[in-house]
Amino acid sequence: MSSPDVPTRGPARSGPYVITGILLTLAIVVPLFVPAYSVDEPRWVGMPFFYWYQMMWIPITSALVGVSYWLVIKEDRRRRESVRGLTSPGEER
Amino acid sequence: MSGMALPLAAPDRPVNVVALTIVIFLFVLVAVLGFVAARWRRGEETGLHSLDEWGLGGRGFGTWVTWFLLGGDLYTAYTFVAVPAAMWATGAVTGFFAVPYTIVLYPIVFLLMSRLWSVSHRHGFVTPADFIGGRYGSRSLTLAVAITGIVATMPYIALQLVGIKAVLTVLGLGSSENVLLTDLPLIIAFVVLAAYTYTSGLRAPALIAVVKDLLIYLAVIVAVIYLPIKFGGWDPIFNSAEAKLGATNPATGKPTGVFIPGAASYSAYWTLALGSALALFMYPHSITGVLATKSRNTIRKNAAVLPLYSLMLGLLALLGYAAIFAGTVPVDLNGAINPQLVVPQLFLDQFPAWFAGIALAAIAIGALVPAAIMSIAAANLFTRNIYVDLIRPDATPRQEAHVSKIASLVVKFGALVFVIAMDQSAAINMQLLGGIWILQTFPAIVAGLYTRWFHRWALFGGWAAGITYGTIAAYNVVNPVTKAHFGGSIAAIPGTDTQVYIAVTAFAINLIVAAGLSLLFHAMKLPDGEDITRNSDYGADENDPKVAQIEREHPLGESGASTF
C-alpha cells in the first residue's frame, strides 16, 4: 500500500486481555459441558434442572460479556490516547 | 384439552375475524413505517444512492437501534415457529439446543466482530467477501465466500415465508382446494415487503424491528406467565412432555423424543449448539447488521445485552411443552399434522382472539425483518463480489446501489417461488445444508482477521473439502419414518460412533485441509495474493480516518514506495 501505516493504538498491556479471555472461555465452555446438567432433579418451580440451569446461564454469560466489555474498553481508550497524544496534539480528526 | 374439538379431517378452518383484523392492522402499520424509514437519518448529499446508505443504513446505527435490528435479524420468525415445534415433536436435542447456542454465541461475537468492523470501516468493505478480497487478493476465494453466502441465505429467506404461512394457515386463510387463493395473502405480504425494502433499504427493517420486538416480548411474557397459571404450574407441563417424549414411536420402535439427553446424545447436543453459534455470524445478514453499526464497540456492547432475546427464545421453546400439555393439535390444510403450526395454534386456542392476533402479528412481522435484511445482504454480495468484481469494475456508488436494489427484488422473488412451487421440506432441507455450508467460510474469514498464515488456495481447498463432506453426509442421513434423504443434521464422525452436528465435522476437515495445504504451498513457495490491509486497520475505531481519506491526504506514488 502506498499510504503510511499510522498505528491506531499504542502497545497493549496483557492484563485486561488475559482476564477477558478467561471470562469468555468460561462463558463458552461451561454451558456446553452437558454431563454437568443433564439431570432432572432438583426441579425449580416445576422445571427440571436441565432446563432452568441452561436458562440461568443466559444472564451469567451476559454479565461475563459485560465485564469483558468494561475491561477491554478501558484498555482500548488508554491505548488510543497514548498514540493520539503523541502524533497530533490538539488536531483530532 | 380444547384441541380435541377439532376434527382431524377438517382442513378448511373458519376465519378468525378478530385476530385477522388485528394482524392486518399491524401489518399495514408496519408497511407505512417501512416506507417512512427512507426519510429517517437520511444522508444529506447522497440520499440512498450508495450501498453505504441503502445497504448499510448509513453505517450509523447506535446501540439501541442495533439491539433491535440484530434481535430481529437473528431471532427470526422461523426460529419462533421451528424451535417450539421441535420441542413439541421431538424434545430437547432438536429444540432446546437453541438455548446454549444463543448463549455461547455472544462471547464469540465479542471476540471476532469488532475486528471485522474495524477493517471494514477503514476500507469501506460492505460484505464479508469484500474483506476476503482485500485480505487475500484471491478472486476465487472471494467468489467462493460470496456464492456460499448467497446460496445459504436464499432458503433462509424462504423459511421466513414458511413462518408467515403458518400464521395465515391457523388464521383460517387458504383452503386445500384453491392453491392460488391460499398463497395470495403471502404474495401480497411479500410484494409490500419488496417495495419498502427497495425504497428504504436497511432503514426499513431497522425501524420495523422495534415494533416487532416489542410485540413479541409482550406476547411471550404474557404467555409464559399466564399459561402455567392456567395449567397449574410448570410441573404438569414438564410431566406431560416427559410422558409424550418417552413413549415409543410405533414407526421406529424408539422413543418419540428426548426429554433430558442421555450420555449418547451429549456430543450431538453441544456440537449443534457450538456449530450453530460459530456459523451464525458468518451469514451475510448478520455481518450486514454488524457493519451497519456506528462504532467499533457498538457490537461488543450489544453482545452483552442481546442475550435478553435468548431468554425469550428459551421461554418460547418451553411453550412447545405447554402445547403438549394443552393437547394442541396442529392440523395443516391437507389434514396432516404439521408441528410448525403448534405455537400459532396454541395462542389461538388459549387466548382471547385479540391477544392471539397480537401474538400472530408479532410472528408474521418477525418474518419481514430478517427477510428484508437477508435479501439486502444477498443483494450486496451479488453487487460487490459478482457484478463489480467480474462484470463492471468501474461501477459508481450510484450504479452499485441501483444493481443491489434490483438484486434484492430478484432474491425475494426467488424465495417466493421456492416456497410456493416447491414442497416446504425442500426449503427446510436447503436451510439445513445452508448452515453446514456457511460454516465452511469461517476459516477464511476468521483466520483472516488475525493472521495471513493460511495460504489463499489452501483456504479454498479447505472450503471445497468441507462443503463436499457436509453435503454428502447430510444427504446420507435418512429419515427413519419417511425414508427421505436429508433427514437431519446429525451424523457419526467417520470411523466412530460419536454422533455430532455434520457442520462441525465438515469444519474440522476444512481446517485440517487448509492447514495441511498451507504448509505444502508455503514449502512450494506459491505466491501469496496482495493484502491491502495493515495491522493498524484491525484496531481502528470510528475516529480513525478511512483509507480513502488517508490516501487523499498523503498522495504518494502508485508504485507502493511507502517511505513516509
CATH architecture of chain B: Up-down Bundle
Spatial order of strands in the largest sheet of chain B: 1-2
DSSP, total strands of chain B: 2
Largest sheet: number of strands, sense, barrel closure of chain B: 2 strands, antiparallel
The overall pLDDT of chain A, averaged over residues, is: 85
What fraction of the residues of chain A are assigned to beta strands by DSSP?
A: under 5%
Based on Cα principal axes, name the global outline of chain A. rod-shaped
* DSSP strand tally of chain A: 0
N to C succession of SSEs of chain B: HHHHHHHHHHHHHHHHHHHHHEEHH
Tally of DSSP helical segments of chain B: 23
Structural class of chain A: mainly alpha
The CA-CA distance between the termini of chain B, in Å, is: 79 Å
Give the domain tally of chain B: 1
Tags for this model:
heterodimer; A: 93 residues; mainly alpha; 2 helices; 62% helix; disordered C terminus; B: 564 residues; Sodium/glucose cotransporter; two-stranded antiparallel ribbon; 23 helices; globular
Question: Layout of SSEs?
Answer:
The complex is a heterodimer of chains A (93) and B (564).
Chain A: H1 14-32, H2 49-87
Helix pairs in contact in A: 1-2
Chain B: H1 17-36, H2 51-54, H3 63-74, H4 77-90, H5 92-95, H6 98-123, H7 128-136, H8 139-170, H9 179-200, H10 203-231, H11 234-246, H12 266-280, H13 284-291, H14 298-305, H15 307-326, H16 342-350, H17 353-391, H18 397-421, H19 424-439, H20 442-450, H21 456-475, E1 490-492, E2 499-501, H22 502-523, H23 547-553
Antiparallel strand pairs in B: 1-2
Helix pairs in contact in B: 1-9, 1-10, 1-17, 3-10, 3-13, 3-17, 4-8, 4-15, 4-17, 6-12, 6-14, 6-15, 7-8, 8-9, 8-17, 8-18, 8-19, 9-18, 10-15, 10-17, 11-15, 12-19, 13-17, 16-17, 17-18, 19-21, 19-22, 21-22
